[in-house]
Amino acid sequence: YLSPSNALAFNDIPNGLAAVSKIPQAGLLQIVAYAAYCEISGINNRGEAPGDFGWKVLTSADPEERKKKLAAEIANGRLAMMAIIGMFFQDGLTGSAWGDWANYTQSPLRAFENELGVQPPVGFWDPLGLAEDGDVDVFTRRRETEIKHGRISMLATMGYMTPEIVGKFPGYLSPSNGLSFNEIPNGLAAVSKVPVGGWAQIVAYGAYVEVSGINSRTEDPGDFGWKVLTSADPEEKKQKLNAEIANGRLAMMAIIGM
Questions:
Q1: Where do runs of H (alpha helix) occur along 167-233?
Q2: Structure letter (DSSP) for residue 123
Q3: pLDDT tens digits for range 119-175
């Protein structure tokens, strides 16, 4: 028994956060008192090294071996801090520290768990909680923005790499300035080399693409009627569209890294 006076057996105590409401008040006081004892009793045992209270479990006569063991303790502690927070979070949502996501029936994210881009291993990943309100219109706008940025990043990544691999265009970028393509450096250094007229053309073309796509937009995010990633087989089409989103996400990370 955990509490003979209350006829409360250890088997009656559930795992996780649900145990908090089951343990008698006297039991919680004992836990707090023991934690206080550990804190106070360690005051006079503190060594010069952080976390060293004279309990020589992680030690060795070899300095390198000792350093390796202490580094492993810190690394495992960091992992455990993330793990216990994740278990608390999952316990609170599903009723178990390793509960099934299907048990969290009240989640507003269920409106989006079957959308494109929901892929393993993370599934529907929304760490900032932007979709918590379940607003479909806002989600659709964000998804369209994500696809657009992914497409731009895929082109940017290829544009960053291709000149280095296959070379640059022959001839002149600006004949009036006597500026050839070979004189334009790769990457951010090109920004200051391209003439103002060239940037005006780039901005104008970007605006043209934006405006011309207004009347071509369909109900599906990112679908402007240009049927490249399509198939008569719904599953194959879904696979291709998922691949585009995944590649776009990768390209966004890649171009930022570059």
A1: 196-212
A2: B
A3: 777 777 777 777 777 788 888 888 888 999 999 999 999 988 888 888 888 999 999
SS3 letters across 129-184: CCCCCCCHHHHHHHHHHHHHHHHHHHHHHHHHHHHHHHCCCCCEEEHHHCEEHHHC
Calculate ∠ Cα 106-107-111, nearest 5°.
Answer: 115
> Residues 190-248: pLDDT tens digits?
888 999 999 999 999 999 988 887 777 777 787 777 777 777 888 888 888 889 899 99
Three-state DSSP at 236 gives helix
Provide, rounded to the nearest whole percent, the portion of the chain with pLDDT above 90.
24
Phi, psi angles (nearest 5°) of residue 123 = 65, -140
The half-sphere exposure of 108 on its side-chain side, counting CA atoms within 13 A, is 10
Burial of residue 251, with CB atoms counted within 10 A of its CB: 0-12 exposed, 13-18 middle, 19 or more buried: buried
Task: Report which secondary-structure segment, H or E, holds 43.
Answer: none
Contacts of residue 98, Cβ cutoff 8 Å, sequence gap at least 6? 87, 90
Q: Which of 160, 110, 122 is nearest to 246 (CA)?
A: 122
Of 116, 110, 114, 112, the C-alpha closest to 247 is 116
Instruction: Report the predicted TM-score, pTM, of the whole model to 2 decimal places.
Output: 0.55
